[in-house]
Structures are given as C-alpha cells and as structure tokens.
Design brief:
By secondary structure, this protein is of the alpha/beta class. 30% of the residues lie in helices and 17% in strands.
C-alpha cells in the first residue's frame, strides 16, 4: 500500500485517521486523547457524555425536575459541563499532539445551545466540531464565533450542496472537511433518504467522487473528505489515496475503536463483538429519532421486531370492513374480522394490553411491558429535538409536543444507551454497531483475545491493515 502521508486537518499536520464520535460516552476524553497522542484525530462525543464520568464532581440532578421542559434544560446543562470535562481530559492526554474534535447530534434538544456552551467553556481544547443527524445550518455560525473548524456529516452530494448554498459558503475558511458517512455501513444513526433502498447498498466511491466534483466547483479542492462507515483497514482504500477524483481524503473509524484498551464500553459488550456474524447487525428504523440506525440484533432489538408484529389497524367508527368492536384503553374501536381473531389469540397468549400508535394501529403487549413503556414515556427527559417515542418536541411554539401520539413501537434512547455503556445487562439494551462489526471475529489481529491500545491500532492502520 502507498505510504499514508499526513494532511492538514483543523490547522495541523496529522495522519488522516479520525476517531468516530459515538454518543453517550462511547467515545470520550480518554479515547480522543489517545488518538490525538498518536498524531491522529481524536473525537469525543458531546451527545450526553457518560453521567458516571470520574471527572465530574457531582451527579446530575435533573431527575428532581418536575417538567420535561426543565428536565431538558438540566440535561443540556449537564451535557455542557460533562463535555468540557471530556475536552480537558483529551487535551491533557494528547500532550499537544494531533487534533481534538467533538461530535454532536444536531437532532438533540438545544443542540445549538450545547455547542455554544461547550466551545465557550473549552476554549483552546477543541479544534473541530463534527455534526450530523439533521441539517445543521447554524454550525457554521457557531464555528465562526469561536474560530473553530467544522465538519458536517452528509450521506450525499445533494445534502452538502444545500448546506453549502444556504450557510457554509459564508464561512468557507473554517470548513475543515466534509464527512461522507455511508448510510448503509455506518453504525448508529444513518442518513438514508426516502429515495434510497435500505436493502440495496451502493458503492461509496462514485458517491464520494460526485461530492468531490461539487466541492471542486465551489473552490473546495483542498478541503478533505472524511470517509466514514465501513472502514476496517486502509489497504481496501488504496485506490482512494492520491487519487485526483477523490482528492484529499481521511478515514474515520467508529466500530474498530470499540475493541481497544481505552474503550469505555463494558467487557460484556467487548465479548459480544468477538462473536458477531454478518447477519447479526441490522439496519432498522425503531429509533425515536425516526432515522435508520445500525445495531446488533440482540434481545433488545428482537423484542422490538417481535413487538411490532402484534398490531392491527383500527377505526374509531365502524364501516363495511372495520365492523368488529374491540375494547381498548377504555374505549371501543373497530377492526376487521380477521384482525379481531388475531387480537383475541394474542390476548390468550398474555398480550392483553393494547396501546394505540400514531399510525391508527393497536399494539398488543403484556401488561408489564405496557406499564414500562408508559413509565418511560412519562419520565422523558427531553433529550431529542423531536421524540417519536414520547411525543416530546423542544419547541415552545408547538407546546413541547410533536402533535403525534407517542409511539410504543420505539424506545427511550437515552435510557438504553446510558445502561449499555455501564454494562447493565447488555443483551437487553441497544448496542449500536457498524455493518462491519462481524469482522472482529474474522480478523487474525484479534486472535487469542488480543485487544490493542489505540496507539497500537493507529500503527496497525498506518501499515494498511
């Protein structure tokens, strides 16, 4: 493989290897600092860093808040405080080498306020902001305010062209790079559009080449593209390097850093990674964000799939087809005769609690599961700008509701991600993974239980492997 040369990222010459910024504590100051110390780019997550972080002097108090609005404000303030602590850890570990970036989900409640607060409190410690899961038009404005490089995450040339035209062209000097995140291969939330088939992956090369063609036209010939999603080793991308059709390029890895000594995920999660097969990682649309996401098909995901099979359409008033009365949640609705029979069979199996969904269906659950879902919805902390699961929206204008019925087919994402990072019964919590997570079991580098340090992983990547 060609020798991988350093390129300029966020104002410094570094190896073009970037840590993916996985949320709720999965990439933190320890991992980001270690990547930077290896002359690469470390990325800690500003998306609600782990609440048990040792750098924090006091626990979160938001659970005492009575309203979602206040809980959401407290959660954002916690995230600001925690992220500043993570930035400080990363800065100290890096020893002034490499670059430190922060990743944040633009679909969070108060994302703009959080970025502003974190950059204000961590001056000189964060060199770049990576942001996706939405259209972060105001990212450029915040970057300009703090003279920080910004890196939008997109999954198509079209998405970037819209951002460029409406916002980024005004602050082009701080556009540090464009992250192309493959919507079929990346872990966590994915940017699949309505026009793209989630079951038919497309080759990323022509999509990235199209993005570069647009960037060249608007004067961004020297601005790096960061390839994200599906990156395992660099020998598989040898034809991308020093290729004028791709231009300056860096490579972002989110899944491989999970299995490192510095990775904060639990031993149970790390053991699970070693057992995965290709079919164990699924692209699904259960997330309360309404984005597709890629996760390990454990008991948590299986229960969501199973839950969604037990639903029938209903109408509030009878007609020629919906003519069978069914009593649910204290009221009578009408279903088709075949669905009435299915509902009765589910009740006999113990799924005798029916909850209405936003799509005019009844979802049949055990009473225990129904109570847990309703409690989780009631306990909502307002972590997202708009939550399909709880019906929360971070908007006073809309009275803090989406206007849709809360969706019991989804889940509280903050709750499950906080539990899985702490190693609490990981088989029954959400475990995000890129589509290539199965390669841990196949790669001889991880044989005999080997877990590398981040420094060793970077060295291995630079060799092409």
């Amino acid at each position: 493989m060609k020798t991988l040369q350093k390129i300029r990222i966020s104002g410094a010459e570094v190896f073009p290897i970037v840590e993916g910024g996985k949320g709720v504590g999965v990439s933190n100051g320890l991992t980001a600092g270690a990547f930077a110390a290896a002359d690469a780019v470390g990325t800690f997550s500003g998306t609600y860093p782990n609440l048990s972080c040792e750098a924090l002097d006091e626990p979160s108090v938001r659970r005492s808040e009575k309203t979602r609005q206040n809980r959401s404000k407290q959660l954002a303030n916690d995230a600001i405080r925690e992220s500043i602590a993570q930035a400080r850890i990363a800065h100290e570990i890096s020893g002034g080498r490499g670059r430190i970036h922060m990743n944040i989900l633009w679909g969070l409640a108060k994302a703009e306020m959080m970025v502003d607060g974190i950059l204000s409190g961590a001056k000189g410690m964060i060199h770049g902001i990576t942001c996706g899961a939405g259209m972060p038009y105001k990212l450029a404005e915040l970057a300009e305010k703090y003279k920080t490089y910004f890196y939008p995450i997109v999954s198509s040339m079209r998405a970037f062209s819209i951002l460029w035209t409406r916002s980024y062209s005004k602050v082009s000097q701080l556009l540090g790079g464009v992250v192309y995140e493959d919507p079929w291969l990346a872990g966590g939330h994915n940017g699949l559009s309505n026009k793209e088939n989630p079951l038919i992956p497309e080759d990323p090369y022509p999509r990235v080449a199209t993005l570069r063609e647009f960037m060249n036209k608007v004067g961004l010939r020297a601005t790096p593209i960061v390839m994200a999603g599906g990156v395992w080793n660099l020998k598989e991308y040898a034809h991308w390097i020093d290729n004028p059709e791709i231009g300056p390029v860096a490579f972002q890895l989110g899944t491989r850093p999970l299995l490192t000594k510095e990775s904060p995920i639990s031993d149970e999660w790390k053991k699970k990674l070693r057992t995965l097969k290709r079919e164990d990682i699924l692209l699904n649309k259960f997330s309360p964000t309404s984005f597709y996401s890629s996760a390990i098909n454990n008991a948590f995901l299986c229960e969501l799939y199973d839950r969604s099979t037990r639903q029938v359409e209903y109408k509030e008033a009878p007609d020629a087809h919906f003519c069978e009365p069914l009593t649910s949640t204290g009221s009578t609705v009408y279903v088709e005769p075949d669905d009435w029979a299915r509902a009765e069979a589910w009740k006999e199996q113990g799924f005798n609690a029916a909850i209405k969904t936003p799509d005019s269906t009844l979802l049949f659950l055990t009473k225990e599961r129904a109570r847990q879902i309703q409690k989780d919805q009631s306990d909502c902390s307002g972590c997202l700008a708009g939550c399909r699961f709880s019906g929360w929206m971070d908007s006073e204008e809309h009275r803090y509701v989406t206007g849709l019925r809360p969706d019991p087919r989804s889940y509280c994402i903050l709750k499950t991600l906080q539990k899985v990072i702490q190693g609490i019964n990981v088989e029954h919590e959400l475990m995000f993974s890129g589509a290539i997570g199965y390669r841990f079991a196949e790669d001889p580098y991880y044989a005999n239980g080997h877990i590398p340090s981040i420094k060793e992983l970077v060295r291995q990547l630079l060799s092409g492997e």
